[in-house]
Fold this protein.
Amino acid sequence: MSAVAADKDFHAYVRQQIGQGRVQPMSDYFREAVARRIETERRADAAWRAAVEKAQEDPEVVTRARRRARKAQEILRNRWYGVRSGHGVRRGGVG
């Protein structure tokens, strides 16, 4: 017995409830969830931009951030290429 065949009566009932305006279609719930997600991401992007702008007001903060970013890139590059080419870096990344 398939789930679709077992749920025909329920499907008809839900369609009737939607038609009478008693419940929302699932697509409405998905649309609302997507709209909330977009708004959350928009707010996060705005907060990120504000933080970047604030950090750029202080040259020392920018210098430290760039130094940390270069160090992180170096560590990741060493892990990636060191492990793949066998240049003395163990799998855990500590050499």
